[in-house]
## 1
Amino acid sequence: MKIVVAALTAPTAMNGVSRHAVNLVTALLQSDSISDVHFICGSWQKEMFRHAFREDNPRVHTHFVELRGRGMSRLAWYYWELPHIAAQLEADVVHFACPVPLRAGAFRCATVVSLHDLYPFDLPENFGAVKSFVTRAIMARCVRNVEALACVSQSTRLSVQKWFPEQAPVAVTICNVVEPDRSLRIEAFGPISTGRTFLLCVAQHRANKNVALAVRILDSLIQNRILPRSSQLVVVGIPGPETQNIRDVVRHLKLEQNVLFLNGLADAELQWCYRHCKLLLAPSTTEGFGLPVAEAMLAGCPVVCSDIPAFREIGGEACHYVVAGSDPASLYANKISQVLPLPRPAPIPFPQLSARVVGRQYAELYAKLACCGVSDFWYATATRT
C-alpha cells in the first residue's frame, strides 16, 4: 500500500501533532504491507523535520510544499491541491495528522484523520471566540468527510461518540507511539544549571494545560519551604493564547527568575529534562492522550497530575493524582510534598504502544479501507463496538 501522510501545520517547532506525524511514519515503516510513505509538510517546517526520521529508508519520500502563508493558503491547499497530489502519487490511503478542511468525495482513495482531542467542542475557550468557531467548522467537516477516525485514546473516542454519534462507527482507537528515546544521550543542558532543583511541565500555552496553575503551585511550594527558593519550573511548549496570562501570573508572583520557558527542544534535550527534574507536573483540566505523562513514566520520572480520564488511561496506578478542589495550588503542593521523599520510580515500558504494534494496527485499518467499500468498513466497525 502507498500511504500519504499530510502534516502541514503552522508551527515551526515540534508540538504534539508534528511529533505524532513523525511517530506515525516510523510506525508504518514497521509493516511490510506498506510499500511507500509520502510525508508531506510545509517548507517552513523543513528544519523541524530535517532529521525526524532516524534512518534512511527508501520507502519514505519527504515532500516540502511552498506556500505564500501558513494560514488560509495552507487550508486552501488541503481543500484544492492535496486531492490531485494524492492521485498523482497513486495513494491507497491519505492520512491527515490532524483535522483539516476537506471536500466531500475529492479523493479517489480512502482517507483517515488522527483525532488527538475534541477541544474545539469540549473546551472552546482554548481558541477564543472567532478561532473556536472556525476550528469547530473545520473539524466537523473533516470528521464527516473521512472514511475513518483514528482516535489516539479511548477518551478521545468517547468524545467522538458524544459530539458526532453518527460518525462513531468509523472511529477506532490507535494510541500514540511511546518508545524509549534512541537519540544520543546528553550529559548537560545549557539553559538549566546542573544540580538546580526544577519541576517540569511539558505543555503548550493553552487553557486546558493549566500552566498558570503550575506557576502558582511552584509559588506555594516555595512559600511553604517544600522546595528551595532557587527552584525552577521549566515549561516546555510552544506559545499560544494563554502565554500573556501565564507571564502575568509569573510577574505578579515575582517568579521571573524561577520560571523558564522553552520550546523546540530536541528529543535528547527533552529526555535530559525528564531524567533530571524532580517530577513532571501535569495539571491539565482535559487531555486527548497525555504524551508527556507516558514519556515521563518511560524515563523513570515521577508524575504528579490531574485526575482525568486520559491520564488514568495511560498512568494507571503509577502516577500521583490530584482531584480537583477549591484550592488546587495547595492540593498539588501537598501531594508533591508527599512524592518528593519517595525513591525515584523505575522506568515503565509500554510494549502495547511500540512502533511495531501501532504500525500493525494502522496497517490493518488501511487494508480494510483499501480492500472493502466504505459501507463495509462502517458495518464491520459498528459490529465490533
Note: The longest strand covers residues 36-42.
## 2
Amino acid sequence: MVIAHGLAALPAVQRLVELAIDEDLGRGDVTSAATVGASEQAATAHLVARQPLTFFGADLVAYVFSRIDPSLHVTLHVADGARLSRGDKVATIVGGARGILEAERTALNFAQRLSGVATSASAYAAAVAGTASRVVDTRKTTPGYRALEKAAVVAGGCGNHRADLGSGILIKDNHIAACGGVTAALSKAKAHAPHTLRIEIEVDSLAMLDEALACGVDTVLLDNFSPDMVRQAVPRCRQAGVRVEVSGGVTLASVRDFAEAGADYISVGALTHSAAAVDLALDFA
C-alpha cells in the first residue's frame, strides 16, 4: 500500500496525481518496455536543481514515484521552502529502473511547476522585506492545482488570500454594478452575510473609498491605485480602523513602492498565473 503524506494525502491532490499519471502512462511506456523490459534492473537516480530556486513539492515527488512503483525508495534531501543553488540534490530514488523512468516526467512536472511558484513568491517576499506589508496570492491559479499552488506560495514566504468563493466576502466591481452601487452592495452584504465572515470591498477611486468607509467595512481593496494614491488613502483607512489591500498591475519592480506607501496586503496574481517552471532534472547515477 502506498502511504501518502502531507498535501499528497488530500483526496483532491490524489485525484490530480491520478489524472497526471493517466495522461502520461495510460497507454504504457513503450520505450522503457523495449529497452529496460520487465526486469528489476536496479538503478539510482538523483533529482537535481539546475538553477537557483525555492523548492516545493516534496510530498508530491515521493508520492508519484511510490504510486507508480511502491518498491522504489525515495530519500528527500531538502524540505519544502528550501533555497537551493545549482547542482543541489533534492532527492535520491533507488529501485527498479523501469519504475523510475515511468514516474520521472510526472514527478518533475509537479516539482518544476510548484517550485516555480515558490521561487516567484520568494522574490516578492524579498522585495518587501523590512516593511509592514505582506504579499498575498489570488484565486488566479491553475485549475485543480489551487491547494498545491497556495501552499507553494506560503513556502516561498508570501501569504494566501481566499481559498475559494466561500472563504470570505470580497465585493468586486461587478458585484457593485449588479447591486447598483457601493452603499447598496455593502448594505446587502451586511444584511445577509454570516457574522463570522469579514467584508472587503474593491474600490477604484478615492470617492468610492470614502463611500465605503462611510458605510463601514473591514478591509478595502484599492484596485489599480498608484503608490501616490495609496498614500492618500491609507490615513483615511487608518482613521476608520480599516485594513488596506492593494491590487492590480503590481509587479516585482513596483511592489516595494506599494509596501512603502502603507498597504497592509498586496495581492499579486502573477505569483501563480505567471510563475515560470524552474529547471529540475532527474539524472541516473
Note: The chain has a mean pLDDT of 95.
